[in-house]
Design brief:
The chain is an alpha+beta fold. Helices cover 39% and strands 21% of the residues. An 8-stranded mixed beta sheet has the order 6-5-9-3-2-12-15-14, with no helix packed on it. β20 and β21 form a beta hairpin. α3 packs antiparallel against α4, α4 packs across α5 and α9 crosses α13. The relative contact order is 0.06. Bound molecules: (3S)-3,7-diaminoheptanoic acid and zinc ion. Belongs to the peptidase M1 family. Its cofactor is Zn(2+).
């Protein structure tokens, strides 16, 4: 396999101006003809034209209408090369034959539930026809689709429908024309038996846009929430960024077989049906929230990704980091900002920090890849979004907006780089960003240590920062980063102290603005060691550091537990209130893990339970905030902080603390459940979701006690639940304990929902992630369950992906969990390399465990590596994991 490097980027020798595609869809094979007008970048150039192609059968090729003969071109398994094409504008016509029915990779043109659909990003277009499959080739497309009329009554592609009609042999056609230039990864085609929910949106300039969400007819009633989300997203982008939709039609199609969540093809978004279909009976609040976020995300790509796209795939975060940031802000504005921030930061900690500390660590803009699909990562997406957020933290909302405006003004219709985005932010604000660009090139999570001291005579308060960026593969030595640290100071009553000025490197900088007091300020930490001294601080303050999580770092402070309890009770920055509780919980868990390993009896600090109790009882707090604040950090987060990760110890300690909390707060938890039952119909809004979240969190705590009273309560909630959010939470609560009740309720749930595959996926995932002893065998058996299908990514993510998230069973000391995953990866790789590669990633942190586990996991990676015909996708992850 060949590694591709960012430093080797070269401009293309040829541009494509227009592309006319014709698809003749058939049951055995499909013919694709493409007619491209090619423009040499340099007139008179004699460079060869190299087209990418994979799994294609070349039928014919013509240049300026002249059929090419054998010696006129070179063909290998991955390319079609014209060694000496005409030196000025010419027409290239290519016909290929492809077999979508056999395509299980779900990349290129394939079939899902009887319908044709496409997925081209990143490099799937080359499985449709020979093309320069790279995002800096932007062309205007037309697409004519021809198919059997009865089987495929609906024919869709990008842009506007310009013509349609009937043909001989019960076939029909549709001709689509996209007026916007686009890279081929945004091309899409759908043909099938679908129906649409129709609606419309009037843009702020008064244009009417038709909105259509397509599904098989029986699913149409479940598309209401997606339509609501789409309209909300369209309005939000106008209000917040002044960005309007640019065509008269916007289509969304839901398909059940899809590798990722969704795809932003120009005006024809294709979605995994899990992120479109929802009804209160079948979808949870988490599903509703995910649909809102992803519908928003794909819609926002119309500007950040489609109108302005990436020069090359190394720049992926240019569109993904920015668009994730935009969808996070959208969801915040539609619900609770604090709760959304807490969820996003948790996701970063649970998934991105481990990646950034492991063998697959890579910068937000990677330097190289073997298979681009392996770089659609939490680093590119979520850390990338944090990088965008830092611009906003540094520039303020208005400054950020000015930067965005300039970015579009300069680059609309272009394929650009991360530096272009940086330059727009900087230039629009005359900003000084020192070494900020290192966020794009240096991997690893910076570790920042803070020490504080108060000088009672001088009335000054000092914060000393010391940063370290850990080594990562290929980057042994790092430079200090530019870290914006948002800070506030609390007085002894818990109120924010007005900040007047700060001494830094010999200058006194004013913080107060126009005589107005300021209660939070952003310190710009840029050196390995640096001190900031606040002036006019008249009592020893308690610092609230990294408010709102202003940078994606690990922060270690010298705050005492009493300070953290104080922040938990008083910080005006709600994110940091939650964070103070998490820091306390992490410390406590690590101490207990050490005790457990030394076989000491476990004792829970009563102050901690007391702190959680006061949060639980505080009527002034948002209920979802309470739910988050009483939830312990996950096993992964704690293992991440240990020298040698010990899954058994961490699991035992977490179970111990949870039971202890449940025991001591039992009365409060029971009333929390009773007082937060649904009284009315399901409503998707923050207050209702918050109530359900709190109730469910309390119920899961209680059921952990496994006493008759709590089990009866959970059963009652299960039987009376009027929506999936509460029904599933009650099921999960009961399923914690390896009892007969567990088996009965799981069976009951399956028989209720066996005809809804999205709900069945939840049922698979719940069992797969379970911590009950000896679960490997159960999961193995579920592979043979009639509802399971290795070809459907959602099923694989639920059962196999779910299993890999189970701290105890995946890491079972006899290696049976590793062996199971190894076998599945090999089988899966033959069907769908992208999905197999996501699964094999679960092995990547094998070095974090003890010797016994290391050897067992390593043996599986070696077994995978020795498999014949391994895909590049799996090869890249497995080989880098072993390196
Ligand atoms: N851009 C797509 C992801 C495509 C994945 C290709 N392997 C979805 C998104 O981020 O919006
Ligand atoms: Zn995206």
């Amino acid at each position: 396999p060949k590694e591709i490097f960012l430093k080797d980027y070269k401009l293309p020798y040829y541009y494509f101006d227009t592309v006319d595609l014709k698809f003749s869809l058939g049951e055995e094979k499909t013919f694709v003809s493409s007619k491209i007008s090619v423009i040499p970048r340099v007139e008179g150039s004699s460079a060869p034209l190299v087209l990418n192609g994979q799994d294609l059968n070349l039928v014919s090729a013509k240049v300026n209408e002249k059929e090419l003969k054998d010696g006129d071109y070179l063909l290998d398994s991955r390319h079609l090369t014209l060694p000496s094409p005409p030196s000025s504008v010419f027409t290239l016509e290519i016909v290929t034959e492809i077999y979508p029915q056999k395509n299980t990779s779900l990349e290129g043109l394939y079939k899902s539930s009887g319908n044709f659909c496409t997925q081209c990003e990143a490099e799937g277009f080359r499985k449709i026809t020979y093309y320069q499959d790279r995002p800096d080739i932007m062309a205007r497309y037309t697409c004519r689709i021809e198919a059997d009329k009865a089987l495929y009554p609906v024919l869709l592609s990008n842009g506007n429908l310009v013509e349609q009609g009937d043909l001989e042999d019960d076939r029909h056609y549709a001709l689509w024309e996209d007026p916007f230039k686009k890279p081929c990864y945004l091309f899409a085609l759908v043909a099938g038996k679908l129906e649409s929910r129709d609606d419309s949106f009037i843009t702020r300039s008064g244009r009417k846009v038709s909105l259509r969400i397509w599904t098989p007819s029986q699913d149409l009633p479940k598309t209401g929430h997606a339509m609501y989300a789409l309209k909300a997203a369209m309005k939000w982008d106008e209000d917040v960024f002044g960005l309007e939709y640019d065509l008269d039609l916007f289509n969304i199609v839901a398909v059940p077989d899809f590798n990722m969540g969704a795809m932003e093809n120009k005006s024809l978004n294709i979605f995994n049906s899990k992120l479109v279909l929802a009804s209160p009976e079948t979808a949870t609040d988490a599903d509703y929230a995910a649909i809102l976020g992803v519908i928003g995300h794909e819609y926002f790509h119309n500007w950040t990704g489609n109108r302005v796209t990436c020069r090359d795939w190394f720049q992926l975060s240019l569109k993904e980091g920015l668009t994730v940031f935009r969808d996070q802000e959208f969801s915040s504005d539609m619900g609770s900002r604090t709760v959304k921030r807490i969820s996003d930061v948790s996701k970063l900690r649970i998934y991105q920090y481990p990646q950034d500390a492991g063998p697959m660590a890579h910068p937000v803009r990677p330097h190289s890849y073997i298979k681009m699909d392996n770089f659609y990562t939490v680093t590119v997406y979520e850390k990338g979004a944090e990088v965008v957020r830092m611009y906003k933290t540094l520039l303020g909302s208005q400054g950020f907006r000015k930067g965005m405006d300039l970015y579009f003004q300069r680059h609309d219709g272009q394929a650009v780089t991360c530096e272009d985005f940086f330059a727009a932010m900087r230039d629009a604000n005359d900003a000084e960003f020192s070494n900020f660009l290192l966020w794009y090139s240096q991997a690893g999570t910076p570790m920042v240590k803070v020490t504080s001291s108060y000088n009672a005579e001088a009335h000054t308060f000092s914060l000393k920062f010391c940063q370290e960026v850990p080594p990562t593969p290929g980057q042994p030595v790092k430079e200090p980063m530019f870290i914006p640290v948002s800070v506030g100071l609390l007085d002894s009553t818990g109120k924010d102290i007005p900040l007047s000025s700060v001494h830094h490197e010999g200058t006194l900088q004013s913080i107060a603005k126009d005589g107005q007091p300021v209660y939070s300020t952003v310190l710009r930490v840029t050196k390995k060691e640096e001190e900031f001294v606040f002036a006019d601080v008249h009592e020893r303050p308690i610092p609230s550091l990294l408010r709102g999580f202003s940078a994606p770092i690990r922060l270690e402070s010298d705050l005492a537990d009493s300070d953290l309890f104080f922040l938990l009770a008083h910080d005006s920055d709600e994110f940091n209130r939650w964070e103070a509780g998490q820091v306390l919980a992490r410390k406590l868990m690590l101490t207990l893990v050490a005790d457990f390993r030394q076989k000491k009896p476990l004792v829970l600090d009563p102050k901690f339970v007391h702190g959680l109790g006061s949060i639980l009882r505080d009527p002034s707090l948002d209920k979802e905030f309470i739910a988050k604040a009483i939830t312990l950090p996950g096993e992964g987060e704690i293992m991440d902080m240990m020298d040698v990760a010990d899954p058994d110890a961490v699991y035992a300690v977490r179970v111990f603390i949870r039971k202890q909390i449940a025991q001591e707060l039992k009365g409060d938890l029971i009333s929390t459940v009773e007082n937060n039952r649904s009284s009315d119909v399901y409503v998707f809004n923050h207050d209702n979701m918050a109530r359900r979240a709190l109730k469910n969190t309390a119920l899961v705590y209680l059921a952990a006690l496994d006493d008759p009273e709590c089990t009866a309560l959970a059963m009652h909630e299960y039987q009376t639940a009027a929506n999936m959010t509460e029904q599933f939470a009650a099921l999960a609560a009961i399923a914690q304990n390896p009892t007969k009740t567990r088996e009965e309720v799981l069976a009951d749930f399956y028989s209720k929902w066996q005809h809804n595959s999205l709900v069945v996926n939840k049922w698979f995932a719940l069992q797969a992630t379970s911590d009950i002893p000896g679960n490997v065998e159960n999961v193995r058996n579920l592979l043979n369950h009639p509802a399971f299908d290795l070809r459907n990514p959602n099923k694989v993510y639920s059962l196999i992906g779910g299993f890999c998230r189970s701290p105890v069973n995946f890491h079972t000391k006899d290696g049976s969990g590793y062996k199971f995953l190894g076998e599945v990866v090999v089988q899966l790789d033959k069907i769908n390399p992208q999905v197999a590669s996501r699964m094999v990633s679960a092995f990547s942190r094998w070095r974090r465990y003890d010797k016994t586990r290391q050897n067992l996991a390593k043996a599986q990676l070696e077994m995978i590596m020795s498999t014949n015909g391994l895909s590049e996708n799996v090869f890249e992850i497995a080989s880098k994991s072993l390196a």
